[in-house]
Amino acid sequence: MGNLITPLDVVNQSFKRGLRGYDVEEVDDFLDQVAESLQAYIQRNNELERELENLKEQAEEFKSLKESLNETLLLAQKSAEERVKTANEQAEERVRAAMEQADAILREAKLKADRIVGDAEVEAAALRRELNRLTQMRCQCVAEFRAMLSKFDMMIREEAPVSGEPQAGTVQQGWQTQTIQQPDPVQQWEAQTVKGNDPTPQTPPQPQQPEQQIRIETPKHDVYDPPKALDPQELAQLVSRKSYSGSGKGGPNPISLSVEEPTLKITSDLG
């Protein structure tokens, strides 16, 4: 590109004069206007160039900022991806740990349940054995008690006086009660005196204490509960002493033997 015309070149430009040429003053005025316009264009161009430089600098700054933003975005994206990856790994680890803990809890619960079931089975077997033992003991006690009652009844029958008068006996609903009474000697003597069976006067015997009464009560049914208060030794001692016969200075001592439900026991009332 050639040299540009400056306003100073326009002002200093000179032309040759010739015949019938342009008016010098008009030409000078026009050149002055052209120089001014050119100067204005030059100033405007310089301003635009400065603005362009500023814009270029701003563009460079924006470019740098863009690159920085891109780098920041990349870093943020990378950091986000790493965080997401870390979060996923942590979540998977927690889920795995929770599953392992749940499996351990289930195994422990199963072991406890098996142990409880095993203990319950052992305890149930022990209870069954104890029930069988108690059942056998109950049957044995009932058999011994029945044998004892039978023996005691036989002894009472052997010790009871033989008399022509019928012995009093009663039967109650639900229980069997046998009452053995001894005759009153005073009543026998009066009866014989009135009838004249004995002509020889005799001193009437002294009235005795109320007649001895021995009562044996047993339930009609054959179902008994295991005895809770049964002392065979005491009963054997009572039988061996013959406390039921009414012998002794103190007069007859009533003895009461009874069987009560739901427990099976022997009670004795000794005066």
Automatic annotation (TrEMBL):
GO BP: cell division
Cross-referenced Gene3D superfamilies: 6.10.250.660
Keywords: Cell cycle, Cell division, Coiled coil, Cytoplasm
Record localization: Cytoplasm
InterPro entries: DivIVA_domain (IPR019933), DivIVA_fam (IPR007793)
Protein family according to the UniProt entry: Belongs to the DivIVA family.
Name of the protein described by the UniProt record: DivIVA domain protein
Organism listed in the record: Thermanaerovibrio velox DSM 12556
